[in-house]
Specification:
- It is built from 6 helices and 2 strands; from the N terminus they run H-H-H-E-E-H-H-H.
- By secondary structure, the chain is mostly helical.
- It has a two-stranded antiparallel sheet.
- 17% of the residues are buried.
Length: 146
């Protein structure tokens, strides 16, 4: 499975907003320059994030965007489900009618277990976890270095 730029950039947008816990709005141009995301594409992703009630917008000269939820409440699993349609590894998991073998297919069950395991892991990682620095109260991600 390869994640689209929508999932990756959407996560980076939220991460950038989470870096501003003072609730001061962050402008599109600031997010764009910090995360190297083109403004036009960024605006499209922000609409999706707003419709999912993850961010709110503030109008005016000192306007911009802020998180609508705490970083601890936003998981990578939610974001991938939001941006990846369909979000299963294979279509027959959610649409068994697309395959004549779906009813008794053990391979389909294996793909379902793999999809469930992937989202179980992604659901355990929040935007707050990605903000973590080296302070002792921060739980490290259980991810081996590349």
């Amino acid at each position: 499975m390869k994640l689209s730029t929508r999932s990756r950039y959407g996560t980076r947008i939220l991460l950038e907003l989470a870096r501003h816990p003072d609730k001061k709005p962050v402008t599109v141009s600031d997010i764009s320059s910090q995360q190297n995301i083109p403004v036009k594409y960024l605006e499209q992703l922000i609409r999706t994030l707003k419709s999912a009630n993850l961010i709110t917008s503030v109008r005016g000269a000192k306007g911009g965007h802020i998180l609508a939820k705490a970083p601890e409440e936003i998981t990578l699993g939610f974001l991938v489900r939001l941006f990846e349609k369909p979000y299963e590894l294979v279509e027959c998991i959610s649409s068994p009618e697309t395959c004549q073998r779906a009813v008794d297919c053990r391979v389909r069950l294996a793909w379902k277990q793999a999809t469930d395991a992937l989202y179980e892991k992604l659901d355990a990682i929040s935007v707050a976890d990605l903000l973590c620095d080296s302070s002792p109260e921060c739980a490290p991600l259980d991810i081996p270095p590349i």
